[in-house]
What does this fold into?
Amino acid sequence: MVYELPKVWQWEEKNTKKGGNRPTAGKRFEQKLPVGKAPFQLYSLGTPNGIKITIMLEELKELGVTEADYDLYEINIGEGDQFGSDFVEVNPNSKIPALVDQSQNPHLNIFESASILLYLAEKFNQFLPTDIHGRTETMNWLFWQIGSGPFVGGGFGHFFSYAPEPMKYPIDRFTMETKRQLDLLDKHLAERTYIAGETYTISDMAIWPWYGRLVLGDLYEGAAEFLNVEEYTHLLEWAHRVEKRPGVQKGLTVDYQPIEK
It folds into this structure.
């Protein structure tokens, strides 16, 4: 059946559930979030974007930064926890991760994964070079991931793994772009140890949960073979290098506390 483009789009598959997509923002129900005693309260889930922050906090703890202690709570996006009143107060955009810094008076809400990574890096003066060249290179690639990642997740990942049925046009379109990005990273990493140079930075923490886990076969079932990731040898070497870090391993296996329903 050929889709006829209407002059004005109308939302046809309306739902009244707590979760599910809607063309509107804001809270859908009242829900209190738990608040622990640690300096940071992290409300998140083990998705690539969520993993960025647990890795960062665990990397800081590996350096002995005790002020980076945090309480971690699960926001089940499948059940719509991201639309509860307290979570929307922390992040009006209703996306994970969301972080609250209780060491600030009044407490400070931080959302969007790149903003959280940058905030923590600057607060503790770690994983962000201080020289202008290193800092700018790190920021270049941090924001590259934020701009490029949706083509992999919302584009390739969605149509490859989650769409109701395989569709050639979107799969071809987003596979083409995903492989272009993988090739870019592979060429970039041919002459350097980490994304921004010889030093591990927040740009690695931002890129690895998406692209590293993709080529390691941990993101979408069957995607590594489909994308023929073995041709990206430098990218694979980097992915394994980052994966072996203790902070990364701890960031992948942390326990999420439930919130009250």
